[in-house]
What does this fold into?
Amino acid sequence: MKTALSADAAAALIPDGSVCLIGGFMAVGSPHRLIDAMVRRGVKNLTIVANDTAMPGKGIGKLITCGAVRKVIASHIGLNPETQKKMISGELEVELVPQGTLVERIRAGGVGLGGVLTATGIGTLVEEGKQIVEVDGKPYLLEKPIKGDFALIGCKQADYYGNLEYSLTAHNFNPIMALAGKQVIAEPHHIVPVGVISPDDVKTPGVLVNHLIERAI
Amino acid sequence: MKTALSADAAAALIPDGSVCLIGGFMAVGSPHRLIDAMVRRGVKNLTIVANDTAMPGKGIGKLITCGAVRKVIASHIGLNPETQKKMISGELEVELVPQGTLVERIRAGGVGLGGVLTATGIGTLVEEGKQIVEVDGKPYLLEKPIKGDFALIGCKQADYYGNLEYSLTAHNFNPIMALAGKQVIAEPHHIVPVGVISPDDVKTPGVLVNHLIERAI
Amino acid sequence: MEDKDIIAQRVAQEIKPEMLVNLGIGLPSLVANFLPKDVHVFFQAENGVIGLGPRPPEGMEDEDLTDAGGGFVTAMPGAASIDSAMSFALIRGGHLDMTVLGGLQVDERGYLANWMVPGKMVPGMGGAMDLVAGAKEVIVAMVHTAKGAQKIVERCTLPLTAVRRVSLIVTEMAVIKPTERGLVLLERGPGVSLDAIVKATGAKLIIEGDVPEMRLN
Amino acid sequence: MEDKDIIAQRVAQEIKPEMLVNLGIGLPSLVANFLPKDVHVFFQAENGVIGLGPRPPEGMEDEDLTDAGGGFVTAMPGAASIDSAMSFALIRGGHLDMTVLGGLQVDERGYLANWMVPGKMVPGMGGAMDLVAGAKEVIVAMVHTAKGAQKIVERCTLPLTAVRRVSLIVTEMAVIKPTERGLVLLERGPGVSLDAIVKATGAKLIIEGDVPEMRLN
It folds into this structure.
């Protein structure tokens, strides 16, 4: 069983300098209350792995604006001009990764694979500095696994074992990231007693989740 | 929309010599009515990719007994003495693959990866004849993707788009195999009208499914 | 008719019933407006949900149901929620029938550049590299020239999105099919002369026989 | 007490509350019977479902809910259905706290052989290679000798399951910890002399100070 923490108590668990995988796609499905608490606490020097940096004032965008982030690994930063500005000024390091490669690299980290062999990025700038492995005469990029000190997960519903359900387009990177954080913190809209969620509805088994944040309402 | 076929009509779609991925774990979750129809039709020379060959008289075991199979790629054949006997007599070729490697190889085939880099099998007989790829100084076996001409899927419920739900331990290899068949044939216990299954309950999107078999009852 | 509507309407003619189609943000997203009502298509957005529907009535938006640009959408009957891993499994595994993307440049080899302008605009590739590498058909939907500058060129000067030949280029002036032999001009835009097309194009066009005008409503 | 009950009871003492544990078929499956009632543990079987419970009352079996051996089980409150990909994501990704497996041989390096006897028995490795390569703790639960033949040996003569040092060997005669220095004898079975253990063991044992007897109920 897991006692649900306040967002502030959860944010206090995340040291400066941590590598955080953060779920969400343009802020949809991100752990919003936890992000707000991290901004309040003034966390610094984070490496953030996420699909995108949302936009200023929304989701991960708030962490960018307040200067909590040293490095971003993402597939898209185009809708957050502050990320681009900080990248150009050298304040922020940005590693751009094709979206499908990003999710597979995180999965590889979470499921214990040595890397990902993908055709995406072959013959492009993404290829630079990477090993190419031939399989049956076809070249594939070897993309390395990604793991986080923390995975910060937004979800629809949890039970007190940490079993998680997700909603519609708020799934996105969350279920995969929940495999790849040394510590997994989940922020559900609702929490229900153990036994209420049907086994077939669980998308992230509770054994992967270390901390639950209190329900929204 | 897909019209539901009889099991016999579906079995008629599968030519002799096909590579069939078949879901199920010790016959739990296999497409039983389709297997019976394949036995009736007398299909020959199949290559079967499955976790196991169940036991005589059950699930995939029936295909082994009736001589429909030329080659098996599986992780375990220990509970089917007929598989072992036919293997020893040379009637049946058997490739044994660690279970986790097997599911990742099928996934790699289904999601378009060049292969799987895994520590499983390193230093064992499984290593023989395979490429070893070093990633950050650690050795990994390169295991090749597996695809099927057909994926034969057992499931709990479907709608007429082919959206699929699975039940308890009858999930097993089914959701992954549904990604890796050129043609996917699903055998549901029930079929419901389109719109009845909540989007969040769908585990295999209907766009992956080519044919549905009539409901059981 | 506006240029972008010409393009969207012409692209819509390429879409066949029951296809799984990914429309990019911006111009490509207009294509949905020109599909005949009786043609059922599955729209997928990278961020999740197969079976996207139009924007809901005001007040009925769901913060967990958006397209890849973050705009509110609905789910059609038979929709399926998918996480990012499944989304790119479909895209990279050869399950996506068609992707429609914008373009900055396309060259005589049929190679597309659409994700960055060095020193000026580095939004990230998002899912573009995966889409171009993985979709069965890749359609580039773009205006023929950008403020007078040619976008169809001999060799892309901007960084490539993939080294794969795209299936079709649709502009307001022309429909062009990249082939092994080069760029074949298939159709002219409404009232556009061959001469105008050649002048607006920076690459050699193969012109065979009569080149018909697009058929638009 | 029977040998296998001694072994199972002693292994059960290694299990701490809230652990995720995989018990192999046969002897290891008995371990569950010796857990104190107040210790909550998550049992996982390779074939799916975290939170396996005991066999249901007669007439309440579900053909879709079995353990990896095909025996009927129940789902405890808070159980989660998982497919084979998630099952081995947990096993290979370092999320499984403990696996308890049977053994044919273990050697001085702590390497296990438990999946085949060449020319005699080739059941396949099932999930064993993944479990030994991936679980946080690997416990070998086996009788000390097989019909007089030593099973703890200098070097395995049977094909290895993995080249990873197992965490602990528990037999009815001894508890042995494989270390960098070799096999350290930790405990004696009930009423078993050091001499008897040394005689029944084909590998050098490191014996330091007094070796206490197992504490059993």
Summary: The two ends of chain C are 10 Å apart (CA to CA). The interface with chain A takes residues 45-49, 62-70, 75, 81-85, 87-88, 91-92, 121-130, 133-134, 159-163 of chain C (CB under 8 Å).
